[in-house]
């Protein structure tokens, strides 16, 4: 037991060291530009792997983030409040988006869905902001709130019993990132590591039999912990199905108090 606890602590600390520099300033206010997707089809082919589920997140207010925000897939599902700086055109509240894709455009930190883009505008100014195509904005990381939804696991179609299991993690709340995943048979202490395939998709070729439980390494700034979902997949799990984990993550990032003047504003919204 002591050896197991030591290995768990090592794993969590290892992941924290990897991501702490990325997360250090996310709740500070950043200055950038955003554009928008001309076609809604881009939302179903995002690098996070959400597919046709993506347009349903946050009422369709979704976005592609630059590599530093996408963070090799760990940033998938992160929520950001964005508001444009044109006071005559845009509201003070802006819009909140969920990251569902990777933005390769080095001129903007985000590319938004058209619904999210127009949501930044004042009433009656939708077409005016669309005509601009790209606007100056300020943004900050905020907690995700899926209200009545728990963290969920979708079994990907490529999964095969006892041979291969690929899952997609959905509805991750709070202000956190999942940086590790393990699976075991319910009642067993023999955990098998999963590998991030891409984005929010994890896989393993070591698939336990029977009902399955999951354990996720979750980070929030410089703090991290295991989140244990004890009864997730039934023994007769099926590809293409979404299963409720029975748990939700609501941690707030505690490692974000120091803002670099070159990247962030001194004040808060």
TrEMBL record:
This is Expansin-like A2. Residues 1-24 form the signal peptide. CDD domains: DPBB_EXLA_N (cd22276). GO terms for cellular component: extracellular region; plant-type cell wall; plasmodesma. Residues 163-245 form the Expansin-like CBD domain. The keyword Signal applies. It comes from Acer saccharum (Sugar maple). InterPro entries: Expan_Lol_pI (IPR007118), Expansin/allergen_DPBB_dom (IPR007112), Expansin_CBD (IPR007117), Expansin_CBD_sf (IPR036749), RlpA-like_DPBB (IPR009009), RlpA-like_sf (IPR036908). Belongs to the expansin family. It holds the Pfam family Expansin_C.
